Amino acid sequence: QVQLVESGGGSVQAGGSLRLSCAVSGRTFSSLGMGWFRQAPGKEREFVSAISWSGGRTYYADSVKGRFTISRDNAKNTVYLLMDDLKPEDTAIYYCAVDQRFGGNYATVRKADQYDYWGQGTQVTVSS
After folding, report:
1. Could you tell me if residue 8 is left (phi over 0), alpha (psi between -120 and 50 degrees) or otherwise beta?
2. Phi-psi category of 121—alpha, beta or left, where left has phi over 0 and alpha has psi -120 to 50?
3. What confidence score (pLDDT) does residue 45 get?
4. FRET label pair with 61: which of 4, 34, 87, 110, CA 20 to 30 Å apart?
5. Four-residue CA torsion sign, 44, 32, 101, 117
6. CA 64 to chain centre
7. How far is Cα 45 from Cα 115, in angstroms, rounded to an integer?
8. Which SS3 state, helix, strand or coil, does residue 89 take?
9. Is residue 124 a contact partner of residue 18, using CB atoms and an 8 Å limit?
10. Residue 56 — pLDDT band, cuts 50, 70, 90?
């Protein structure tokens, strides 16, 4: 049983920063592709970022490119999302997810149905 536990969400003012963490158990973490998605009220879940099993390849949605940084520590079975220069439109519940078949194609890694396991989500609220 794969378990993912997100943490690090909270409320910040526009321009601030947060770092989300996602701890994974139940699988060999270093073999897994990982992704971050978010869902705002009344909107569909959208891709934010993804990272290959080694951390050598990273992917970002255009809306966060240059502001968010994904990384992973395979020794700690944890993936991170550093979010800088936050904007009110970044307000959402953020979810991390596991992709056991990570292929590395951007068109694939940004699809929610590519991912096999999901965390419970952590709320990020950005005020103007």
Report:
1. left
2. left
3. 97
4. 4
5. negative
6. 11
7. 13
8. helix
9. yes
10. very high
- pLDDT tens figures, 1-53: 899 999 999 999 999 999 999 999 988 888 889 999 999 999 999 999 999 99
DSSP reduced 3-state for 15: coil
Cβ atoms 126, 16 nearer than 8 A: yes
Instruction: Find the radius of gyration of the CA atoms of the chain.
Output: 13
**Pairing of the two strands 122-127 and 10-13:** parallel
Torsion of CA 72, 75, 114, 126, to 10 degrees: -40
Length of the chain counted residue by residue: 128
Distance in angstroms (rounded) separating the CA atoms of residues 128 and 109: 31
Residue holding tokens 């139940």? Answer: 26
Angstrom distances, CA of residue 57 to CA of 88, 94, 102, 107: 28, 21, 11, 14
